[in-house]
Amino acid sequence: MNENILGIIAGILTSVSMIPQLIKVIKEKNVEDISLLMLLVLISGLSLWVWYGFIKDELPIIISNSFAVLVNISLLICYIIYNKKG
């Protein structure tokens, strides 16, 4: 398998992996089962992947991880809005 195709498929899968969670949170307006620490660590890691993509000039890494950062920031915003503990 061509390594570019493998990278693109991996990027797509990881980028969309949190969309079902985001949809569920938006529908139910419930974030009780979401870990704030996990979200912060994930957004940090994905942001570092974007930075790495820029350093290596790898557009698939930049695009897929930028999309994943946006999805997870959206989830973080939902966490802030719907968190009933705070």
TrEMBL record:
Keywords: Membrane, Transmembrane, Transmembrane helix. It comes from Chryseobacterium rhizosphaerae. Pfam families: MtN3_slv. InterPro entries: SemiSWEET, SWEET_rpt. The chain crosses the membrane at residues 6-23, 35-55, 61-82. NCBIfam families: SemiSWEET_2. This is MtN3 and saliva related transmembrane protein.
